[in-house]
Amino acid sequence: RGYPLSVASFATLTFYIATMIGGVGIGWLMDRFRANRVLAACFALGGLCVAAIAAAIPWIMLVALTVFATGLLVSGGQAGIWAYVAAYYPTNVRATGVSWNSVFGRAGSMSGGFLGGGLLALGFDTAQIFELLALPTMLAGAFMLLHERFPGDSG
User: Fold this and answer.
1) Closest Cα to residue 155, out of 43, 32, 23, 63?
2) Which end of the chain is more exposed for a tag (fewer CB within 10 A), N or C?
3) What is the pLDDT of residue 1?
4) Mean of the pLDDT values across residues 64-80?
5) Which residues have a Cβ under 8 Å from the Cβ of 23 and sit 6 or more positions away?
6) In Å, what is the CA distance from 3 to each residue of 17, 29, 62?
7) Residue 151 CB neighbours (<10 A)
8) 29-34: average pLDDT
9) CA–CA separation, 151 vs 122, rounded Å?
10) Which of 83, 102, 76 is nearest to 150 (CA)?
11) 151, 150, 155: which is closest to 33 by C-alpha?
12) 47, 75, 100, 122 from 67: Cα distances, Å
């Protein structure tokens, strides 16, 4: 059940290559447009890509493409969050703000594995899990739109 190790390794590689490209590209976009809107679009579209992985499972190349897009948008967007948070907080509390960002990010990373394992134990299949994982990603996009009043944004 699942893909051969070589295919899974290739998909993982595409994810991390896309993350590097996305981090730089999203940073460039954040410098030119409202940062919160750029990140909102990344997370909303990234959530759709996560859901698309569920539909792509039968086709290896489509999985690689959707995993690449997910890395580009979601992980690239996560890299952008660090810059956003650092620019948002005043200097005297910046380290604390960035640290809280790290705490919530790490908590999400750790709980994701537990949640995925729990859902598998409850009988959810892989496609259903990817569909569920799309929801918090899209919710992050909605929250970034709510954060419209960013004092450092241009436009």
Assistant:
1) 32
2) N
3) 62
4) 93
5) 75, 76, 79, 80
6) 20, 35, 13
7) 7
8) 94
9) 45
10) 83
11) 155
12) 11, 11, 28, 25
